[in-house]
Input
Amino acid sequence: MPAASAIRTLVVDDQLTMRALVRTSLQQIGMRDIEEAPDGEVALRSLLVQPVHLVISDFNMPNLDGLSLLRAIRAHPPLSKTAFIMLTGRADRELVQRAVQFGVNNYLVKPFTTAQLKEKLEAVFGPLT
Amino acid sequence: MSDDPFEAIKATFFQECEELLADLEGNLLTLESGSTDIEVINAVFRAVHSVKGGAGAFGLEDLVRFAHVFETLMDELRSGRKPCDDPTVKTLLRASDVLADHVAAARGAGAPVDPARSAGLVAELEALTYGGTAPVAAAEPEEDDFGFTPVAMDLGAFEAPAGLPDLPDLPPLPDLAALAPLSAPAPLPDLSASAAAGGWKIVFRPHPRLYASANETGLLLRELARLGPTRVELDDSGLPLLDALEPTDSHLIWTIELDGDASEAEVREVFDFVEMDCDLSITPLSGDGPAEAAPTAVEAESDASALARAASSELDIAALLASVGAAPTEAPAPVAATPVVAPVVDPVAPPPVAAKPAPAAPAPVQAAPAAAAPVTIRVDLERVDRLINAVGELVIQQAMLAQRVTESGLARSSDIGLGLEDLELLTREIQDSVMAIRAQPVKSVFQRMPRLVREAAEATGKKVKLVTSGEDTEVDKTVVERLSDPITHMLRNAIDHGLEGPEERLAAGKPAEGTVRLAALHRSGRIVIEISDDGKGINRPRVRGIAVERGLIAEDAVLSDDEIDNLIFLPGFSTATEVSDLSGRGVGMDVVRRSIQSLGGRISISSVLGKGSTFTLSLPLTLAVLDGMVVGAGEQTLVAPLAAIVESLTPSEADIHYVGGVDPVLRFREAFVPLVDVAQAMGFRDQPAALKGAVVMIVETESGQRAALLVDAIHGQRQVVIKSLETHYRHVEGVAAATILGDGRVALILDIDALVTAKRSRTPSRSDLQMAS
Output
C-alpha cells in the first residue's frame, strides 16, 4: 500500500491548464512530488535524468505525442517499469486500444474529477494512503 | 487551502485560451495563404482540442459544444478524409472568430454569443464535415468505457501483453542514446522496499511560518520517535540575546538520528504538513559519503523550489532542458563520486541556448521551440514606472553634475571629466534599458486586425487581403494600448472608402481582391505605422469640394495636393455621403489624428489616384521622454514639443499684420496665421516682444491649425524627461508638463494647443482670416 506522498509523478500535456488541473487533483489525493512537461520529448529528457513512478500523459502533443512517449518508455529498460496513465477524450476509443497494445496501465477521460483520477490511480497502484 | 485552486486554474485557462486562439488564427492564416502542411492542420486541431478540453473541465457547455463541432471537422481534415480547400479555410476562420466569442462570453468578458450566428456556423461546419448528409452521430459517445482492464503496477517487472499484432505504420522511436545524458539518472526511491536499514539522519530547521501556522516541533519529534529510537541534538547557536530576540523568528535547528527500519517515505510523512515551511534533509544514517547518501538525499529545499518552479511551467521546462542539455558538457566525472541529487535548477538561470545533448548523433526530433523561449518574469507595472522615474532623476542629476563641473573650470580630459563622460554613457544605457522594459511588440494590436478585416470585408461585400509586417516592432506599452483604436479606424476606413468593390476593381484592371497592408517599423528613434491600400486613392476635387462646402477652406484657396489630402483630418470633415455602417460611426479622421497627437505622434496621408492611399503614423517610442525645442521667452526657458513644430523662421516687420488693428497675424506662405507672443501669453511680460532678433516657430495644433509662436531665442533641440506639473503643483493653462534642465532649472513644456486656442478666443475666427487672405 504505497503512500501517495511518496509517488513521484510526471504530468505531460501541452496545455498549461490541463497540467495544472492534473497537478491540483494529484495534490488533493496527497501527492507531493509532481513534475511537468509540455510534450513527449521534454518528458523523455526529464525522465532520463529523473525517473518517476508514474507518468500521466496527454495523447496529442507537438514534437512527441503520448503514444510515442509510451513506446519510448516501454522500450528503454531503465524506464520500462514506469506506470503510465493516458489522458484521453471521450471519443478516443481507438487511441486507447492502441495504447493498450503498447502497455498503458490505465486511461483517464477528460474532463475528470479528483475522485475519478484517484480511482484510476488505485487501479494501478492499489489503495493509496 | 483557502481558495479554490480550480478557480485560479480557470483564470490560467482563459489566459491560455488567448494564446491558443492567437495560434489558431495564425495557423489558419497560414492555411489560407495556400499551405497544406499537415503539421499546421494538426496544430489547428490541437488548439481547438485544447480549448475544448479545458472548457470541459470547467463545465463551459456552450464552448464545449461549439469547439466539438469545430474539432470534428478538423479531425476530418487532418486525416485527409476531407480536403482543406479555400472555402473550408474561410469557414474555419469565421468559426475561429465565433470560438473566440464563445471564450469571451464564458469568461464573462464579452456579450453572449449571438445564437443564430453560432448555430449558422455549426451548420456550416457540419455540412463540411458530413458533406451535406445529416450527421449520424454528432454527439459524443456518453459512455467512456473502452472495454479496458487497467494494468496493475506491482512495481515489479512490466511484461508487454503477448501476442500483439505487428503495427507496421509506426513512426521511428526517438533515439534514446542521443537523448541520454552522460551522468547517471537520479535513482528513484523504491516505493515497495522499506530500505535503509540503519536508520536516518534528519536535519530539521523550521521557518517562522511553520510556527505561525500553529505547528509544534515537539509533536513532530514525538511522532518521529514512534518510528524508532531517536537521538535528538538541538543547535541553538543561532539564538540571539534576549533583548534582540524577535519572538516570531525561528532560530533553532534539530538534528535527529533515527534508528530502526523505517522507510524514507514514513519519515517524510511525519513532516508532510510542514515540508513547505522548513528546511529538511533526510539522509541514511549508515551513509558515510555523499555518493552513498545521495540516493535519498533529496533536499527538502530543492523539493520546495521544484514545486515553486512548477508553478511557472515555461520556466520549468526551459530550465529542465538546460539542465539536460548541459549535462554532457560537464566534466565526465566518475559517476559514483558525483553526488547525485535531483537536478538543482536555478530559476534565474539565463535562457538556455537550445543545445542538443549529443551533437554527434543526429537528433531524431526537433527541439520544442517553446522550450527555448526566453525566460520571463511578471513584474508589477508600478514598480517599473517607479524605476523609470528614478532613472529620469538620475539623468537629470547626471546632466546637472556635468554642467557644474564644466562651470567649475575642470578640463574635460581631467579624471573627473573623463569619469563623468563614462557616467553619461552609463546613464544613457540605463535609461534605454529601463525604457525597453516597458516596450512591447505591436503584435498584440496587430493580431486583432485580421478578424476586423474579415468582418469589414463581409459587411461591405468587398474582397480583402490583409498583409502585416513588423509585428515584433516594440514601443512603449501605453503607446501600444492606445494604438488599437486608431489602427482599427484607419483599417475600416481603408476598406470602406479606399478599396473598390470586386467588379469595379476588375474593370480597372486590378485583381478582384484588394490588399490592405499594415506595417510597423522603427525610423529615426520613432515608430512608424503604415496603413496602405491599393484602392482608388483620394478623389481630390471631391475632397476639396466638401471642404469648401463645410466652410473649412476658402473657395479660392490655393492648396497643394498634399494639403488637400490632409484636409480629411479636419474636424467636421467626412467624405461618406451617407453614414455607412462601418466607418461612419460618428468619429472622423480628426478623432484619429487627435488620439495620435495626444501620444506625441503625427499622422499624414499620401495618395495616388487609382493606385491607393497610405496613412503614416509616426509615434515616439516612449511617453517618459520628449524631443523638445528649448527656447527662451522673457527671461524664462521653455520647451516646445518638437512634434508640433513645422518650421522656424526669423520674421520681418513687413510680414506682420494686425487684424482689426489689434491682433497680430503673420503672413506665412501666402496665408495668414495667428501670431502668439509666448512670453506675453504666459504672462512673463506685458509689452509685446521686440521683433528684432526674435524667432518664430510655426506650429501645428492637434486639430491641424497652424499658428506662429514668437519667442526671444531658440537654444536648441534636446531630449527632456517629462515631469507632471499637476502632481507637483497644479494644472497651469498653456503648460503641458515640466522638465528639469541640465543646469537644474525647471523648464515648462508648452501645451501648444492650449496656447493657440486661448489666443484664438480673442482673435477673429479662422474663416475671417481666410477671407482676409
Notes: The domain at 5-130 of chain B is CATH 1.20.120.160 (Four Helix Bundle (Hemerythrin (Met), subunit A)). Chain B has five domains: 5-130, 200-372, 381-440, 442-620, 625-772. The first helix of chain B runs from residue 5 to 32.
